[in-house]
Amino acid sequence: MFVPQKILTTRIQIVLTLIFFCVHNAAILQAKDVPDLLQPIDNLMRSYSLLAGSGNAHATAEYLDAFVPAPQSDMEGIYTTLEDLNVVEFGPDHLQVALNRISPEYFGYLPALALRNAITTSTIFLENYHTRRSNCTYCNNCPHNTSCKQKYSSISAQGIIESGQYKNHTCINQSACNEYSYKSSGGAAIIDLWQSHSTLCSIGIGGFHNSQRYGYCKKPNHLNSGHIELYTRYQPCAFFIDGLLDIGFSKSSTNRSIIFADIDRIATSKQKGSSMALHVQCGYDSVHDHYSIVPLGRLSYYYTHQCRFRECSASSLDLDVQGFGRHTLRSQLGAQFNGCFDIHRALFMPQVHIAWAHTEQPDHQCICANLVALGEKEFSIQDASLKHNNSCITDIDMAVQFSCIKLFAHYTLEVGSPYLVNTLRLGLAYIF
Questions:
Q1: Which residue from 39, 66, 62 is spatially nearest to 50, judged by alpha carbons?
Q2: What global pTM score does this model have?
Q3: SS3 172
């Protein structure tokens, strides 16, 4: 039977159309059975905010949700890796850790370390004069103390070693704010400028080199700080009041490890910072024959500031971090025992100081930044470091004075709920 060519062509077209329709429908049905994890990120990208929880991880997720990375870019690879973590089967922790490590939360340690240096420096100055003044008063009857009578001026220098460990139990496991340790070394020098019967004015300098490391990081961070101190005391009788102004500056180099899934990078940066602290201390100097008991109260305000900086060497994960600051209020209440004992041509002067300290910081202290690869649009996270805590401080000082020369060793232990700090100071003073 002869079939016209036109009819044959039409039948072939119908058959081909049916075959294409069946194949297309089968592909659609099969695609519905494939998990979202296996679909190309360009075609379907789920919001990270759903599994990011709250806090800084959620803020970072919302920031990333607002962008679509350029095809074949390094940032697209980052998004693809996050997409692999963005599944319920993995649980929220993996995604939250990744988002926290992308965020600038890591840099909360900078003002925290500058604050510790300022606390150590101010403690040296506020304790220095009082110990010397009390020792001179109740050692006046000692036969070897002629150089100290009615004279309290001195020049002193000391070396400092400090170490600390910090753990934030409110952070998820191995996030950027979870745990770090640091070691510091430095020195301080003090000279009395002017004194009268009831007033003293002094000036001093101090400096520290700090090495800090997070638990998961490969390389340590370094911070150098310097301080200038102005001190005054007014003591018309047994009651006294001290005032101290501390101006500081710092330079630091940071290695921010960004490790999650198959991502392993280190973003490097250099920062500059400054600090200012005001202290008021008062007490009552109850002097006896060979010892004194002194109740002390201290109120301190600290402000630390970090200038703007930009990271490099981590490709699309480099951050441009805006300048940020931190306000801290610290109160301290305690008592100090000073002793003086004559030991064969010298004076032995032990000191024990026990105090309770409370540190308070505002809840809303933010760090703003943007990923350089995503343009200038910024996102803000909360500084996840210490907000408030109570701690117990124990100071033990041992000094030996030969005529006008005094040698001393001082150990401080501060124990708080999230941290532990040890400080050792060795020094020499000349009294004139």
A1: 62
A2: 0.82
A3: coil
